[in-house]
Design goal:
Layout: E1 4-6, E2 9-11, H1 22-39, E3 44-49, E4 54-59, H2 65-81, H3 86-91, E5 112-117, E6 120-128, H4 132-145
Antiparallel strand pairs: 1-2, 3-4, 3-6, 5-6
Helix pairs in contact: 1-4
């Protein structure tokens, strides 16, 4: 059994978990808004903690109402699987994985990324409202603006 020493207390049954701060989540939302406006689409943006729980959200006035739910589900998927959502599109074609396509929250479309700091997932970002490519580009631009790692 692995034991972790933290502040003179030995933890034998848990691990420390880091979470994106409220201010960094808000900064990601603002960075996506700017990138989406630059590209010419109205976006819904969701930021979750590492457990997929909503931390920050914004939907542009002109963003389709469905984009709100899709953005949250993209962030949830990215947090859950610790990978970008666009990788799921091709993965879901595999017979071993195809049943996951029926999960109500799994979103295998570009625009969702885990938020990674120092190699650890601290949250996730979901963008919706444009094409899958536009959503993905806006998410990447926001992650780069805040100097977060972008997974391959």
């Amino acid at each position: 059994m692995k034991r972790i020493l933290m502040q003179n207390v030995i933890r034998a049954h848990s691990v420390p978990a880091h979470s994106i701060t409220r201010s960094s989540a808000a900064e990601l939302v603002a960075a996506v808004r700017a990138a989406a406006e630059n590209t010419g689409f109205a976006a819904a943006v969701a930021v979750t903690d590492a457990g997929g729980h909503l931390k920050a959200f914004e939907r542009a006035d002109d963003a389709p109402f469905l984009a709100a739910e899709v953005a949250v589900d993209k962030a949830w998927t990215a947090a859950s699987y610790r990978s970008a959502t666009h990788v799921w599109n091709s993965s879901l074609a595999a017979p071993e994985v195809a049943p996951l396509a029926h999960h109500p929250r799994l979103m295998g479309v570009g625009g969702g990324y885990p938020v990674i700091e120092l190699g650890e997932v601290i949250g996730a970002l979901g963008v919706s409202g444009g094409s899958a490519e536009q959503d993905q580009q806006a998410a990447e631009a926001a992650l780069r603006a805040l100097r977060f790692e972008i997974p391959a």
